[in-house]
Amino acid sequence: xxxxxxxxxxxxxxxxxxxxxxxxxxxxxxxxxxxxxxxxxxxxxxxxxxxxxxxxxxxxxxxxxxxxxxxxxxxxxxxxxxxxxxxxxxxxxxxxxxxxxxxxxxxxxxxxxxxxxxxxxxxxxxxxxxxxxxxxxxxxxxxxxxxxxxxxxxxxxxxxxxxxxxxxxxxxxxxxxxxxxxxxxxxxxxxxxxxxxxxxxxxxxxxxxxxxxxxxxxxxxxxxxxxxxxxxxxxxxxxxxxxxxxxxxx
Length: 250
Prior knowledge:
Largest sheet: 4 strands, antiparallel
Distance between the termini: 106 Å
């Protein structure tokens, strides 16, 4: 059945991703993409340090290619290595960095907040870091750190938010690190663009000139209106006082 083929293909891609994740952890593995071409299978590997993926004289690439061909059954696999331009916006890389810092003994709150500052400093719209496991004592707990705006449900949370996961083995037990990032170029379906106000000069039922109003011009107009209202109130007060004085004189 065709459903079974989809499940088999997805399982194969997951196994390949786990294998590359284990082999290229020191190289800053940032994910992979499998493309079927007429000449074979193209595997695009994203890494923070591409030189460590390639190895001296291409030794690592050849070993990975042989493994993908023999153990995973890929037809004529070809590996292309691409460098991650902004590692702070890659959730897989940041999850591994958090795992390494926790393994060195740093406190989980300090690690989470410093990572969030780096991600938001790179221009992300929002970030969520979740650390679960025995982080405080003998009982398991979950600590969640959020900054900025990030979608939590619906199709945008699946299609527009990038996710990364990593684990780290500590003395109390295994900790799970889950990082979700909304990239800076993300445009939400419900986003609204407010156009600037336009002033049209009409003469003889024809538009002669069109000008865009700046915020400063709008503020000036509001100040003028407020001044006029204040003058009207002042005139009313003066008239009331003069009327009361006239009554007292009479």
